[in-house]
Amino acid sequence: MANRTRVRAAGEGTIYENVKRKRWEGQFPYTDPATGKTKRKLIIGKSQTEVSKKGKEFQDTIKSGLVPGADKKTLWDWLDHWLKECIKPNVRIKSFEKYESCLKSYIKPKLGDKPIKKLTPEDFRKVFNEMLTKGGRAGIGVSTSTVRSTRRYLAMAYKQAIEDGIVARNIIHATKPPQLVKEEIKPLTEEQANLLLKAAKEGEFFYLGVKQRRKPSPASEYHKAMAYAVVMLTLNTGMRLGEVFGLKWGDIDLPKKVVSVRRSLVSSATKGMIFEEPKTKGSKRRIPVTDAVKKALERYQKEQQWFINGMGDQYDAKENLVFANLFGKPVDTSNFTTRYFKKMLVQSGLDRHFCFHDLRHTHATLLLKQGVNIKVISERLGHSTIQMTLDTYSHLMPDMQQTAVHALEALNMN
Fold first, then answer.
1. Distance between CA atoms of 93 and 244, rounded to whole angstroms?
2. Minimal CA–CA distance to 400: which of 376, 371, 374, 379?
3. Which residues pair with 5 in a beta bridge?
4. What angle is formed at CA 117 by the lines to CA 18 and CA 95, rounded to 5 degrees?
5. Which residue among 4, 124, 162, 325 sits deepest, i.e. has the most Cβ atoms within 10 Å of its Cβ?
6. Which residues pair with 17 in a beta bridge?
7. Any bridge partners for residue 8, and if so which?
8. Start and end of every Core-binding (CB) domain (predicted)?
């Protein structure tokens, strides 16, 4: 003990000078919040005052409910733990991948290696502002929706960090989310929808970009028939892309002209194409369809069965999918939109910036213009509330008001 000069101050533990190592050291007692046992924390410094100050800060931290070592934990140490242990077991795979992607892409590179206890609201404000102005692959900024989602995930992570004794307060709440700027929906007009259906039915889109047109094959004829049936069904039901490709023949009652949505096909970065239950109770629904849709599905079903018979054992009919690839497996939806839908747009002379989801908007818009009750439209779309439908299509309401005036004039009430 000759190398140590002990100093003891009331309530602050034992502080001593370690002559051999030329530093001051302190042993500070604390109660481990995880086990309830009394332990001692070694703290070192260049002077007695420094060790005393660090020791008091450590003891104050413990008294406030924070765990030992929290000051050394980086933001990404915590976020990575939170994602794997708190989020992944409790959300859908696609939702988890969105959480992980946002935090990895925008937060980890900027703040991931910073001690979580030393971060300030200003650190996060700076990142959020950079996301809006310079974020994304193109460096032109990401949407306000993406920034708001990223901020929401961080607030959730900090809330859990408080409960686990990692931080004392949720500094994300000291930042403000950017005002949400909704992207304007781009529905097709009735004329454009018919042009798209015409291109899909004729099937010439299939040969766009092909240097030398080959003779029609069973596979190409099957693909063309499937592409037309997909577009026809979507325009007439407003179903989401994943819902369309998640259909099984058992979900379609052709005699009663009803399509039941029971699952969705989603693309996962880790698991490939997988089926999931609908997100909400409203998403699981029955959609009545027209005679034209019934006939289109009947024709397609015959085409598919003819193709299956030709494939024999190579076709796996176990899933009984309505829209399957050449071997009966789920279709890669991204591949479908790139190889077929985008080509249909070109063939019909429409803007390539239209996306498949715009067919859903088209369905809703055309029904609104026909004066269909908003509740009926909401149910067909599978929205959780009518308010969601109104929020999405409220900009169309002024036109509806004029339609109402014309209807009243037709009544000739004097």
1. 19
2. 371
3. 17
4. 140
5. 124
6. 5, 24
7. 14
8. 73-162
Who contacts 348 (Cβ-Cβ below 8 Å, separation ≥6)?
Answer: 192, 195, 196, 198, 199
Its pTM stands at 0.77
Please tell me the predicted confidence (pLDDT) of residue 10: 47
Cβ-proximal residues to 297 (8 Å cutoff; 6+ apart), any chain: 229, 233, 252, 254, 322
- Distance CA(284)–CA(201), nearest Å, equals 29
Cα gap 368→365, rounded to integer Å: 5
64 DSSP assignment: T
**The two three-digit tokens of residue 4, written as one number:** 């140590």
Query: Taking all residues of the chain, what is their mean pLDDT, rounded to a whole number?
Result: 89
Separation of first and last alpha carbons in the chain? 109
CA 28, CA 55: separation in Å to the nearest integer?
Answer: 6
pLDDT, mean of residues 92-120: 94
Contact by Cβ (8 Å): 319, 330: yes
> Cβ distance 166 to 67 under 8 Å?
yes
Element (H, E) at 15: strand 14-18
What confidence tens digit (pLDDT) does each residue in 323-346 have?
999 999 999 999 999 999 999 999
The amino acid at residue 323 is: F
Q: Within 10 A of 101 (CB to CB), how many other CB atoms are there?
A: 13
- ∠ at Cα 224 (253, 326), nearest 5°? 80
The single residue listed with the structure tokens 């037309």 is 228
Segment 186-225, tens digit of pLDDT: 899 999 999 999 999 999 998 887 776 778 889 999 999 9
